[in-house]
Design goal:
This protein has 15 helices and eleven strands. The chain has about 350 residues and is an alpha/beta fold. It folds into two domains: about 210 residues, 3-Layer(aba) Sandwich (Rossmann fold); about 100 residues, Magnesium chelatase subunit I, C-Terminal domain (Helicase, Ruva Protein, domain 3, Orthogonal Bundle). The strands form four sheets. Strands 2-5-8-1-9 form a five-stranded parallel beta sheet. The radius of gyration is 25 Å and the shape is globular. The N and C termini lie far apart (about 50 Å). About 35% of the residues are buried.
Protein backbone atom coordinates (compact mmCIF):
# COMPACT_ATOMS: atom_id res chain seq x y z
CA UNK A 1 0.00 0.00 0.00
CA UNK A 2 1.09 3.58 -0.60
CA UNK A 3 -0.29 6.92 0.37
CA UNK A 4 -1.89 9.42 -1.97
CA UNK A 5 1.34 11.35 -2.60
CA UNK A 6 3.61 8.28 -2.67
CA UNK A 7 4.46 6.44 -5.89
CA UNK A 8 4.70 2.61 -5.93
CA UNK A 9 8.20 1.16 -6.10
CA UNK A 10 7.81 -0.31 -9.62
CA UNK A 11 5.95 2.65 -11.13
CA UNK A 12 7.33 3.86 -14.51
CA UNK A 13 9.05 7.25 -14.53
CA UNK A 14 6.83 10.24 -15.17
CA UNK A 15 7.56 11.55 -18.70
CA UNK A 16 9.11 14.99 -18.89
CA UNK A 17 6.71 17.26 -20.80
CA UNK A 18 9.58 19.51 -21.90
CA UNK A 19 11.21 16.56 -23.70
CA UNK A 20 8.02 15.92 -25.71
CA UNK A 21 7.82 19.59 -26.66
CA UNK A 22 11.46 19.59 -27.77
CA UNK A 23 10.94 16.48 -29.89
CA UNK A 24 7.83 17.99 -31.47
CA UNK A 25 9.67 21.24 -32.27
CA UNK A 26 12.55 19.31 -33.82
CA UNK A 27 10.17 17.26 -35.97
CA UNK A 28 8.37 20.41 -37.11
CA UNK A 29 11.68 22.06 -37.97
CA UNK A 30 12.83 19.04 -39.98
CA UNK A 31 9.48 18.95 -41.77
CA UNK A 32 9.80 22.64 -42.70
CA UNK A 33 13.31 22.01 -44.00
CA UNK A 34 12.09 19.11 -46.12
CA UNK A 35 9.27 21.20 -47.57
CA UNK A 36 11.77 24.00 -48.28
CA UNK A 37 13.94 21.56 -50.21
CA UNK A 38 10.89 20.33 -52.10
CA UNK A 39 9.93 23.90 -52.97
CA UNK A 40 13.40 24.52 -54.38
CA UNK A 41 13.12 21.36 -56.49
CA UNK A 42 9.62 21.96 -57.84
CA UNK A 43 9.70 25.73 -58.40
CA UNK A 44 12.38 25.87 -61.09
CA UNK A 45 9.73 26.83 -63.68
CA UNK A 46 8.68 29.99 -61.83
CA UNK A 47 11.65 32.22 -62.71
CA UNK A 48 11.48 31.43 -66.46
CA UNK A 49 7.71 31.96 -66.39
CA UNK A 50 8.11 35.39 -64.78
CA UNK A 51 10.69 36.24 -67.42
CA UNK A 52 8.41 35.27 -70.30
CA UNK A 53 5.49 37.24 -68.86
CA UNK A 54 7.84 40.19 -68.36
CA UNK A 55 8.50 40.23 -72.10
CA UNK A 56 4.89 41.19 -72.75
CA UNK A 57 3.81 42.95 -69.53
CA UNK A 58 5.60 46.03 -68.19
CA UNK A 59 4.97 46.58 -64.50
CA UNK A 60 1.77 45.10 -62.99
CA UNK A 61 3.84 43.04 -60.54
CA UNK A 62 0.85 42.50 -58.29
CA UNK A 63 -1.24 41.17 -61.17
CA UNK A 64 1.52 38.78 -62.28
CA UNK A 65 2.03 37.47 -58.74
CA UNK A 66 -1.70 36.85 -58.33
CA UNK A 67 -1.82 35.00 -61.64
CA UNK A 68 0.91 32.72 -60.30
CA UNK A 69 -1.11 32.24 -57.10
CA UNK A 70 -4.08 31.19 -59.23
CA UNK A 71 -1.96 28.68 -61.13
CA UNK A 72 -0.47 27.26 -57.92
CA UNK A 73 -3.78 27.02 -56.07
CA UNK A 74 -6.10 26.06 -58.91
CA UNK A 75 -8.45 28.85 -57.86
CA UNK A 76 -10.39 31.07 -60.25
CA UNK A 77 -9.52 34.76 -60.54
CA UNK A 78 -11.63 37.85 -61.19
CA UNK A 79 -9.67 40.74 -62.68
CA UNK A 80 -11.26 44.16 -62.42
CA UNK A 81 -9.79 47.22 -64.08
CA UNK A 82 -10.25 49.91 -66.67
CA UNK A 83 -9.69 49.15 -70.36
CA UNK A 84 -6.13 49.08 -71.63
CA UNK A 85 -4.42 47.84 -68.44
CA UNK A 86 -3.14 44.56 -69.98
CA UNK A 87 -5.59 42.22 -68.26
CA UNK A 88 -6.33 40.17 -71.36
CA UNK A 89 -2.73 40.39 -72.54
CA UNK A 90 -1.44 39.02 -69.23
CA UNK A 91 -3.78 36.02 -69.29
CA UNK A 92 -3.00 35.17 -72.93
CA UNK A 93 0.74 35.42 -72.22
CA UNK A 94 0.36 33.10 -69.24
CA UNK A 95 -1.45 30.52 -71.36
CA UNK A 96 1.26 30.59 -74.03
CA UNK A 97 4.02 30.18 -71.46
CA UNK A 98 2.66 27.10 -69.68
CA UNK A 99 2.08 24.86 -72.72
CA UNK A 100 -1.63 24.54 -72.07
CA UNK A 101 -4.73 24.74 -74.21
CA UNK A 102 -6.47 28.07 -73.96
CA UNK A 103 -9.84 29.50 -74.99
CA UNK A 104 -11.01 33.10 -74.89
CA UNK A 105 -14.75 33.69 -74.48
CA UNK A 106 -15.96 37.20 -75.23
CA UNK A 107 -19.12 37.67 -73.20
CA UNK A 108 -21.94 39.64 -74.85
CA UNK A 109 -25.57 40.38 -73.85
CA UNK A 110 -26.98 38.07 -76.54
CA UNK A 111 -25.07 34.94 -75.44
CA UNK A 112 -26.73 31.67 -74.45
CA UNK A 113 -25.43 29.03 -72.00
CA UNK A 114 -24.89 26.66 -74.94
CA UNK A 115 -22.35 29.14 -76.33
CA UNK A 116 -20.15 28.28 -73.33
CA UNK A 117 -20.75 24.68 -72.32
CA UNK A 118 -21.96 23.25 -75.64
CA UNK A 119 -25.18 21.58 -76.73
CA UNK A 120 -26.74 18.50 -78.31
CA UNK A 121 -27.03 18.43 -82.11
CA UNK A 122 -29.23 16.03 -84.03
CA UNK A 123 -27.39 13.74 -86.45
CA UNK A 124 -29.83 12.70 -89.19
CA UNK A 125 -27.54 9.95 -90.48
CA UNK A 126 -27.45 8.16 -87.13
CA UNK A 127 -30.92 9.41 -86.11
CA UNK A 128 -29.58 10.42 -82.71
CA UNK A 129 -28.31 13.44 -80.84
CA UNK A 130 -24.60 14.12 -80.50
CA UNK A 131 -22.91 16.33 -77.95
CA UNK A 132 -20.91 19.23 -79.29
CA UNK A 133 -18.67 20.57 -76.57
CA UNK A 134 -18.27 24.29 -76.05
CA UNK A 135 -15.16 26.41 -75.40
CA UNK A 136 -15.34 25.70 -71.65
CA UNK A 137 -13.51 22.43 -72.32
CA UNK A 138 -10.03 23.86 -72.01
CA UNK A 139 -7.40 24.17 -69.29
CA UNK A 140 -7.32 27.96 -69.23
CA UNK A 141 -10.48 29.98 -69.86
CA UNK A 142 -10.39 33.74 -70.34
CA UNK A 143 -13.91 34.99 -69.64
CA UNK A 144 -13.50 38.47 -71.09
CA UNK A 145 -15.92 41.12 -69.77
CA UNK A 146 -17.89 38.50 -67.87
CA UNK A 147 -20.36 41.08 -66.54
CA UNK A 148 -21.68 41.78 -70.06
CA UNK A 149 -23.50 38.43 -70.19
CA UNK A 150 -26.94 37.88 -68.59
CA UNK A 151 -27.30 35.92 -65.36
CA UNK A 152 -28.30 32.63 -67.01
CA UNK A 153 -25.05 32.62 -68.99
CA UNK A 154 -22.95 33.54 -65.96
CA UNK A 155 -24.62 30.74 -63.99
CA UNK A 156 -23.56 28.26 -66.67
CA UNK A 157 -20.06 28.65 -65.28
CA UNK A 158 -21.08 27.73 -61.73
CA UNK A 159 -20.91 23.95 -62.08
CA UNK A 160 -17.72 24.13 -64.10
CA UNK A 161 -15.97 26.43 -61.61
CA UNK A 162 -16.98 24.51 -58.49
CA UNK A 163 -17.29 20.89 -59.59
CA UNK A 164 -14.91 20.91 -62.58
CA UNK A 165 -17.54 19.18 -64.65
CA UNK A 166 -20.19 20.15 -67.20
CA UNK A 167 -23.61 18.59 -67.77
CA UNK A 168 -25.05 18.65 -71.29
CA UNK A 169 -28.39 16.93 -71.56
CA UNK A 170 -28.07 13.56 -69.82
CA UNK A 171 -24.28 13.47 -70.04
CA UNK A 172 -21.74 14.78 -67.55
CA UNK A 173 -18.19 15.53 -68.72
CA UNK A 174 -15.13 16.15 -66.60
CA UNK A 175 -12.87 19.14 -67.21
CA UNK A 176 -9.05 19.13 -67.34
CA UNK A 177 -7.20 18.84 -64.03
CA UNK A 178 -5.52 22.19 -64.69
CA UNK A 179 -8.88 23.91 -65.32
CA UNK A 180 -8.78 27.60 -64.40
CA UNK A 181 -11.19 30.49 -65.13
CA UNK A 182 -9.67 33.96 -65.41
CA UNK A 183 -12.48 36.48 -65.75
CA UNK A 184 -12.21 40.21 -66.46
CA UNK A 185 -14.73 42.98 -65.91
CA UNK A 186 -14.85 46.74 -66.32
CA UNK A 187 -15.79 48.56 -63.07
CA UNK A 188 -17.18 51.70 -64.69
CA UNK A 189 -19.42 50.21 -67.38
CA UNK A 190 -23.10 50.40 -66.43
CA UNK A 191 -25.01 50.16 -69.70
CA UNK A 192 -25.43 46.63 -70.99
CA UNK A 193 -23.84 44.95 -67.97
CA UNK A 194 -25.15 42.48 -65.39
CA UNK A 195 -23.59 42.35 -61.91
CA UNK A 196 -22.30 38.91 -60.99
CA UNK A 197 -24.58 37.03 -58.57
CA UNK A 198 -23.19 36.51 -55.06
CA UNK A 199 -23.19 32.73 -55.49
CA UNK A 200 -20.83 33.02 -58.43
CA UNK A 201 -18.58 35.82 -57.24
CA UNK A 202 -17.90 33.88 -54.04
CA UNK A 203 -16.43 31.08 -56.14
CA UNK A 204 -13.57 33.28 -57.30
CA UNK A 205 -10.49 32.71 -55.18
CA UNK A 206 -9.30 36.30 -55.63
CA UNK A 207 -10.68 39.56 -56.91
CA UNK A 208 -7.73 41.52 -58.26
CA UNK A 209 -8.02 45.24 -58.88
CA UNK A 210 -5.69 46.24 -61.72
CA UNK A 211 -4.42 49.80 -61.44
CA UNK A 212 -2.62 52.22 -63.77
CA UNK A 213 1.14 51.79 -64.33
CA UNK A 214 3.60 54.28 -62.86
CA UNK A 215 5.00 57.16 -64.92
CA UNK A 216 8.30 55.37 -65.52
CA UNK A 217 6.50 52.18 -66.53
CA UNK A 218 4.23 54.06 -68.92
CA UNK A 219 7.24 55.73 -70.49
CA UNK A 220 8.78 52.29 -70.98
CA UNK A 221 5.54 51.12 -72.62
CA UNK A 222 5.77 54.10 -74.96
CA UNK A 223 9.36 53.26 -75.88
CA UNK A 224 8.45 49.63 -76.52
CA UNK A 225 5.75 50.69 -78.98
CA UNK A 226 8.30 52.67 -81.00
CA UNK A 227 10.52 49.64 -81.46
CA UNK A 228 10.75 48.39 -85.04
CA UNK A 229 12.02 44.96 -84.05
CA UNK A 230 10.13 41.76 -84.85
CA UNK A 231 7.22 40.80 -82.57
CA UNK A 232 8.17 39.23 -79.26
CA UNK A 233 7.53 35.51 -79.07
CA UNK A 234 6.55 33.88 -75.79
CA UNK A 235 8.45 30.65 -75.21
CA UNK A 236 6.64 27.81 -73.39
CA UNK A 237 8.67 27.25 -70.20
CA UNK A 238 6.33 25.27 -67.92
CA UNK A 239 4.34 22.10 -68.35
CA UNK A 240 1.04 21.21 -66.69
CA UNK A 241 2.75 18.39 -64.79
CA UNK A 242 5.23 20.90 -63.31
CA UNK A 243 2.36 23.00 -62.02
CA UNK A 244 0.50 20.00 -60.59
CA UNK A 245 3.67 18.90 -58.76
CA UNK A 246 3.99 22.38 -57.26
CA UNK A 247 0.37 22.28 -56.11
CA UNK A 248 1.09 19.15 -54.09
CA UNK A 249 4.02 20.89 -52.41
CA UNK A 250 1.93 23.96 -51.58
CA UNK A 251 -0.37 21.85 -49.40
CA UNK A 252 2.63 20.56 -47.40
CA UNK A 253 3.72 24.05 -46.30
CA UNK A 254 3.57 24.41 -42.53
CA UNK A 255 1.05 26.73 -40.90
CA UNK A 256 1.14 27.23 -37.14
CA UNK A 257 -2.07 26.96 -35.12
CA UNK A 258 -1.73 30.59 -34.06
CA UNK A 259 -1.83 31.71 -37.68
CA UNK A 260 -4.89 29.53 -38.30
CA UNK A 261 -6.57 31.22 -35.34
CA UNK A 262 -5.56 34.59 -36.80
CA UNK A 263 -7.25 33.72 -40.12
CA UNK A 264 -10.46 32.68 -38.36
CA UNK A 265 -10.40 35.88 -36.28
CA UNK A 266 -10.09 38.04 -39.41
CA UNK A 267 -13.07 36.35 -41.04
CA UNK A 268 -15.21 36.44 -37.90
CA UNK A 269 -14.42 40.13 -37.48
CA UNK A 270 -16.36 40.73 -40.71
CA UNK A 271 -19.41 39.00 -39.20
CA UNK A 272 -19.19 40.17 -35.59
CA UNK A 273 -17.15 43.41 -35.69
CA UNK A 274 -18.45 44.53 -32.29
CA UNK A 275 -16.66 41.59 -30.65
CA UNK A 276 -13.38 42.93 -32.01
CA UNK A 277 -13.97 46.52 -30.87
CA UNK A 278 -14.91 47.70 -34.34
CA UNK A 279 -17.81 50.07 -35.01
CA UNK A 280 -18.55 48.61 -38.43
CA UNK A 281 -21.64 46.55 -37.63
CA UNK A 282 -23.82 49.15 -39.39
CA UNK A 283 -21.55 49.15 -42.45
CA UNK A 284 -21.44 45.39 -43.06
CA UNK A 285 -24.59 43.77 -44.46
CA UNK A 286 -23.07 40.29 -44.78
CA UNK A 287 -19.62 39.16 -43.71
CA UNK A 288 -17.17 36.88 -45.46
CA UNK A 289 -18.20 33.28 -46.11
CA UNK A 290 -16.31 30.16 -44.93
CA UNK A 291 -14.70 30.11 -48.37
CA UNK A 292 -12.77 33.20 -47.23
CA UNK A 293 -11.27 31.19 -44.36
CA UNK A 294 -10.30 28.31 -46.63
CA UNK A 295 -8.92 30.58 -49.34
CA UNK A 296 -6.93 32.76 -46.93
CA UNK A 297 -5.08 29.66 -45.81
CA UNK A 298 -4.50 28.47 -49.38
CA UNK A 299 -3.35 31.83 -50.76
CA UNK A 300 -1.05 32.42 -47.77
CA UNK A 301 0.60 29.06 -48.49
CA UNK A 302 0.97 29.98 -52.17
CA UNK A 303 2.66 33.26 -51.22
CA UNK A 304 5.03 31.35 -48.94
CA UNK A 305 5.79 29.01 -51.86
CA UNK A 306 6.56 31.95 -54.15
CA UNK A 307 8.90 33.28 -51.46
CA UNK A 308 10.67 29.90 -51.22
CA UNK A 309 9.59 29.28 -47.62
CA UNK A 310 8.28 26.07 -46.12
CA UNK A 311 6.17 27.93 -43.56
CA UNK A 312 3.53 30.68 -43.49
CA UNK A 313 4.01 34.00 -41.69
CA UNK A 314 1.33 36.49 -40.55
CA UNK A 315 2.52 38.82 -43.32
CA UNK A 316 1.46 36.21 -45.89
CA UNK A 317 -2.06 36.28 -44.45
CA UNK A 318 -2.11 40.08 -44.45
CA UNK A 319 -0.89 40.18 -48.04
CA UNK A 320 -3.68 37.82 -49.10
CA UNK A 321 -6.52 39.36 -47.10
CA UNK A 322 -7.52 42.20 -49.41
CA UNK A 323 -7.79 40.15 -52.60
CA UNK A 324 -9.47 37.20 -50.84
CA UNK A 325 -12.13 39.16 -48.93
CA UNK A 326 -12.90 42.34 -50.92
CA UNK A 327 -15.61 40.60 -52.97
CA UNK A 328 -16.95 38.55 -50.04
CA UNK A 329 -17.99 41.46 -47.81
CA UNK A 330 -21.27 43.12 -48.73
CA UNK A 331 -21.46 46.67 -47.45
CA UNK A 332 -24.70 48.34 -46.38
CA UNK A 333 -26.42 51.37 -47.91
CA UNK A 334 -25.14 53.42 -44.99
CA UNK A 335 -21.56 52.49 -45.85
CA UNK A 336 -22.11 53.42 -49.49
CA UNK A 337 -23.62 56.75 -48.46
CA UNK A 338 -20.57 57.53 -46.33
CA UNK A 339 -18.09 56.30 -48.92
CA UNK A 340 -16.91 53.29 -46.89
CA UNK A 341 -15.86 50.37 -49.08
CA UNK A 342 -15.14 46.73 -48.30
CA UNK A 343 -11.44 47.52 -48.76
CA UNK A 344 -11.63 50.18 -46.04
CA UNK A 345 -13.19 47.64 -43.70
CA UNK A 346 -10.54 45.01 -44.43
CA UNK A 347 -7.69 47.47 -43.84
CA UNK A 348 -9.24 48.43 -40.50
CA UNK A 349 -9.52 44.75 -39.58
CA UNK A 350 -5.85 44.17 -40.36
CA UNK A 351 -4.93 47.12 -38.13
CA UNK A 352 -7.20 46.00 -35.27
CA UNK A 353 -7.21 42.20 -35.01
CA UNK A 354 -4.18 41.11 -32.89
CA UNK A 355 -1.37 39.55 -34.93
CA UNK A 356 0.24 36.38 -33.52
Amino acid sequence: MFTKNQKPENAPPVPDASVDVTIQVDETYRSIQQVGDEIAATSTWLAPLRREIGKMIIGQEHLVERLLVGILSGGHLLLEGLPGLAKTRAVKTLALAIQSDFNRIQFTPDMLPADIIGTQIYNPQQTSFEVKKGPIFSSLILADEINRAPAKVQSALLEAMQEKQVTIGDHTFGLPELFLVLATQNPIEQEGTYPLPEAQIDRFLLKIVVDYPTMSQERQILDEQESTESPINVIPVARPEDILASRKTVHKIYMDDKIKDYIVSLVFATREPQNFKLDYQDYIETGASPRATINLKLVAKCLAYLAGRGYVTPDDVKDAALDVMRHRIRVSYEAEAEGVTSEDIIRKLLDTVPVP
